[in-house]
């Protein structure tokens, strides 16, 4: 009985990993055979970023059961802290791989720390209130970075929130973060392969966390807070832990994103609240708590507007129709039943909606 | 020595004295009933004992340890577990995982060990599953271990709540209307379960119940609560024949 269950989750997780790996192989084959336009190739790393963001957000929305609209903010923290590090150590650490690895660590840790700082006051709230406050925090982070000037010269670091001149640097000074112009000259250390590896890492963390003692504690809070307390689960600790891990993973998404661009700016287009909402759309359309669904939704919904570019004016119309169709496919009970029937036909284990 | 000692416990909500000068002494291994009309404050007493509410005055002592003023989590770790009047399961978790959440504090490994699937994760999870299955077997739920908790029939959900509470390895088990909504057959089975749990785990049990057949059948001692005050207490048969109790609660 027990083995059967372990096997089932194991199989399900394996399928998810395999989907990612096979898609990677397919895309690589297409690149090598010259079947992928340069426009599409440019989209590959952002898609990886969005997949990571969707997975990270699904940890908060699906597993912890709280609504966060501030994940673009955590992504922003990860992006800027890591880009800052990479630009600073561009000459000190010539090895791009090592530099990127360290940047990843820094981005993830900074974002996780922000997750904790923001989580402590915010996680007392529930539902809509939590969503509103996280949304505000995301905006604050973005706007703060927009007015931040940081430079370095022989005397050390200089910081200002006014302009470059008030940094008062020596002649040898180097402006690292230049306010609204952001960080220019970040080494573009990330690529599609790294992106896919990071997706696999994120999946590994999220899936294994969910199927462990900690994950059970987090889900018990989602299902019934009072009962969780009554069996001795420390609500604050596990809520904060889920939030911080999710923020850290969002930070990783940010690192990947930042190292794909030579100029990183904190524009609403990159890190604004509409991005947070887009991540939420990925999660909801993929099925709340369903990691595989999040991946698919993130890929499809990012590719779709590009693929429909030829239709010009009708683009958003079709986009909306696809949104509705996906919603029905992932969430309508009759569709779930139908899906299970099809899966059973293929001789696979039944994939229930709470499979992940 | 009494395992649970409660002295002049009181709490008021606004102007209403919900529980007034409540006292209780339960011996180890006893099956104790708390009865009374609706709104008498029975569940409030449970909430006071488990730290959901902080009493305005009074003391709660479990096995010689002061529990007054501690929070729910601390009190659970000191050894009081409970079930709820309106079932509160982790509905989207499997039956097995519900019990495993109850084992959370006794079987530990760190989050990192869990994510990386280190040997300690595997060993501990195996022990947890064994222990949880043992508990499920006691309540005849072993075959449904993989079901979602919300898919269980009502009677079994009640049993699962008891199994989950027992998983925290308590000294005292509080059952809030365990037979509510059950048919006579299910109630009879539940009575056997409760007795079995008491004998097998040497558990002390305090239960709230309106089903007099169950109360008369298994409780050794009773306390009757009326308008937040203790109306009567003592041996079950004596209390059930007390004229005061008959007028206030049982009816002629």
UniProtKB/TrEMBL annotation, chain A:
<keyword id="KW-0812">Transmembrane</keyword>
<dbReference type="GO" id="GO:0015658">
    <property type="term" value="F:branched-chain amino acid transmembrane transporter activity"/>
</dbReference>
<feature type="transmembrane region" description="Helical">
    <location>
        <begin position="43"/>
        <end position="65"/>
    </location>
</feature>
<keyword id="KW-0472">Membrane</keyword>
<dbReference type="GO" id="GO:0005886">
    <property type="term" value="C:plasma membrane"/>
</dbReference>
<feature type="transmembrane region" description="Helical">
    <location>
        <begin position="192"/>
        <end position="210"/>
    </location>
</feature>
<keyword id="KW-1133">Transmembrane helix</keyword>
<dbReference type="InterPro" id="IPR001851">
    <property type="entry name" value="ABC_transp_permease"/>
</dbReference>
<dbReference type="InterPro" id="IPR043428">
    <property type="entry name" value="LivM-like"/>
</dbReference>
<feature type="transmembrane region" description="Helical">
    <location>
        <begin position="279"/>
        <end position="304"/>
    </location>
</feature>
<dbReference type="Pfam" id="PF02653">
    <property type="entry name" value="BPD_transp_2"/>
</dbReference>
<feature type="transmembrane region" description="Helical">
    <location>
        <begin position="12"/>
        <end position="31"/>
    </location>
</feature>
<feature type="transmembrane region" description="Helical">
    <location>
        <begin position="96"/>
        <end position="122"/>
    </location>
</feature>
<feature type="transmembrane region" description="Helical">
    <location>
        <begin position="316"/>
        <end position="336"/>
    </location>
</feature>
<protein>
    <submittedName>
        <fullName>Amino acid/amide ABC transporter membrane protein 2, HAAT family</fullName>
    </submittedName>
</protein>
<keyword id="KW-1003">Cell membrane</keyword>
<feature type="transmembrane region" description="Helical">
    <location>
        <begin position="129"/>
        <end position="150"/>
    </location>
</feature>
<feature type="transmembrane region" description="Helical">
    <location>
        <begin position="72"/>
        <end position="90"/>
    </location>
</feature>
UniProtKB/TrEMBL annotation, chain B:
<dbReference type="InterPro" id="IPR003593">
    <property type="entry name" value="AAA+_ATPase"/>
</dbReference>
<dbReference type="InterPro" id="IPR027417">
    <property type="entry name" value="P-loop_NTPase"/>
</dbReference>
<keyword id="KW-0547">Nucleotide-binding</keyword>
<dbReference type="GO" id="GO:0005886">
    <property type="term" value="C:plasma membrane"/>
</dbReference>
<keyword id="KW-0067">ATP-binding</keyword>
<feature type="domain" description="ABC transporter">
    <location>
        <begin position="4"/>
        <end position="252"/>
    </location>
</feature>
<dbReference type="GO" id="GO:0042941">
    <property type="term" value="P:D-alanine transmembrane transport"/>
</dbReference>
<keyword id="KW-0813">Transport</keyword>
<dbReference type="Pfam" id="PF00005">
    <property type="entry name" value="ABC_tran"/>
</dbReference>
<dbReference type="InterPro" id="IPR032823">
    <property type="entry name" value="BCA_ABC_TP_C"/>
</dbReference>
<dbReference type="GO" id="GO:0015808">
    <property type="term" value="P:L-alanine transport"/>
</dbReference>
<dbReference type="GO" id="GO:1903806">
    <property type="term" value="P:L-isoleucine import across plasma membrane"/>
</dbReference>
<dbReference type="GO" id="GO:0016887">
    <property type="term" value="F:ATP hydrolysis activity"/>
</dbReference>
<dbReference type="GO" id="GO:1903805">
    <property type="term" value="P:L-valine import across plasma membrane"/>
</dbReference>
<dbReference type="GO" id="GO:0015192">
    <property type="term" value="F:L-phenylalanine transmembrane transporter activity"/>
</dbReference>
<dbReference type="Pfam" id="PF12399">
    <property type="entry name" value="BCA_ABC_TP_C"/>
</dbReference>
<protein>
    <submittedName>
        <fullName>Amino acid/amide ABC transporter ATP-binding protein 1, HAAT family</fullName>
    </submittedName>
</protein>
<dbReference type="GO" id="GO:0005524">
    <property type="term" value="F:ATP binding"/>
</dbReference>
<dbReference type="InterPro" id="IPR003439">
    <property type="entry name" value="ABC_transporter-like_ATP-bd"/>
</dbReference>
<dbReference type="GO" id="GO:0015188">
    <property type="term" value="F:L-isoleucine transmembrane transporter activity"/>
</dbReference>
<dbReference type="GO" id="GO:0005304">
    <property type="term" value="F:L-valine transmembrane transporter activity"/>
</dbReference>
<dbReference type="InterPro" id="IPR051120">
    <property type="entry name" value="ABC_AA/LPS_Transport"/>
</dbReference>
């Amino acid at each position: 009985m027990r083995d059967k269950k372990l096997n089932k989750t194991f199989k399900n997780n394996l399928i998810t990993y395999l989907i990612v790996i096979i898609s990677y192989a397919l895309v690589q084959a297409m690149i090598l055979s010259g079947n992928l336009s340069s426009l599409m190739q440019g989209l590959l790393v952002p898609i990886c970023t969005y997949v990571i963001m969707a997975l990270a957000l699904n940890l908060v929305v699906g597993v912890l059961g709280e609504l966060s609209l501030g994940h673009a903010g955590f992504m922003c923290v990860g992006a800027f802290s890591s880009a800052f590090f990479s630009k600073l150590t561009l000459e000190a650490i010539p090895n791009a791989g090592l530099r990127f690895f360290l940047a990843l660590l820094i981005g993830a840790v900074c974002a996780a720390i922000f997750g904790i700082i923001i989580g402590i006051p915010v996680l007392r709230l529930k539902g809509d209130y939590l969503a509103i406050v996280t949304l505000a925090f995301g905006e604050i982070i973005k706007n703060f970075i927009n007015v931040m000037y940081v430079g370095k010269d022989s005397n050390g670091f200089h910081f200002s929130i006014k302009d470059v001149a008030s940094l008062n640097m020596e002649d040898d000074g180097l402006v690292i973060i230049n306010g609204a112009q952001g960080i220019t000259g970040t080494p573009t250390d990330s690529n599609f392969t790294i992106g896919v590896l990071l997706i696999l890492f994120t999946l590994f963390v999220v899936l294994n966390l969910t199927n462990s003692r900690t994950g059970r504690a987090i889900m018990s809070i989602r299902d019934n807070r009072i009962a969780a307390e009554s069996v001795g689960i420390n609500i604050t600790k596990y809520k904060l832990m889920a939030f911080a891990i999710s923020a850290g993973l969002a930070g990783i998404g940010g690192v990947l994103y930042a190292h794909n661009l030579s100029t990183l700016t904190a524009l609403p287009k990159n890190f604004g609240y509409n991005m947070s909402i887009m991540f939420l759309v990925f999660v909801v359309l993929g099925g709340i708590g369903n990691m595989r669904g999040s991946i698919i939704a993130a890929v499809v919904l990012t590719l779709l507007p590009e693929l429909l570019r030829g239709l010009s004016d009708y683009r958003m119309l079709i986009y909306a129709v696809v949104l509705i169709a996906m919603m029905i496919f992932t969430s309508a009970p009759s569709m779930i039943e139908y899906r299970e029937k099809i899966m059973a036909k293929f001789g696979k284990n039944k994939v229930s909606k709470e499979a992940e | 020595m009494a395992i649970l000692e409660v002295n002049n416990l009181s709490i008021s909500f606004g102007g209403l004295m919900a529980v007034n000068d409540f006292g209780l002494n339960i011996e180890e291994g006893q099956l104790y009933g708390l009865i009374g009309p609706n709104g008498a404050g029975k569940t409030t007493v449970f909430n006071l004992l488990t730290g959901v509410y902080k009493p305005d005055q009074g003391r709660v002592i479990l096995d010689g340890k002061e529990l007054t003023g501690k929070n729910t989590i601390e009190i659970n770790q000191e050894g009081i577990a409970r079930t709820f009047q309106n079932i509160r399961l982790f509905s989207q978790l499997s039956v097995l995982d519900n019990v495993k959440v109850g084992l959370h504090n006794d079987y530990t490994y760190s989050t990192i060990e869990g994510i990386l699937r280190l040997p300690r994760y595997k060993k501990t999870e195996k022990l947890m599953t064994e222990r949880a299955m043992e508990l499920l077997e006691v309540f005849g739920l072993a075959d449904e271990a993989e079901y979602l908790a919300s898919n269980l029939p009502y009677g079994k959900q009640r049993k699962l709540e008891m199994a989950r509470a027992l998983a925290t390895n308590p000294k005292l088990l509080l059952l809030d209307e365990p037979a509510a909504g059950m048919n006579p057959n299910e109630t009879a089975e539940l009575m056997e379960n409760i007795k079995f749990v008491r004998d097998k785990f040497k558990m002390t049990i305090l239960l709230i119940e309106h089903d007099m057949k169950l109360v008369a059948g298994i409780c050794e001692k009773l306390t009757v609560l009326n308008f937040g005050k203790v109306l009567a207490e003592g041996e079950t048969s004596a209390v059930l024949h007390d004229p005061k109790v008959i007028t206030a609660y049982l009816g002629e």
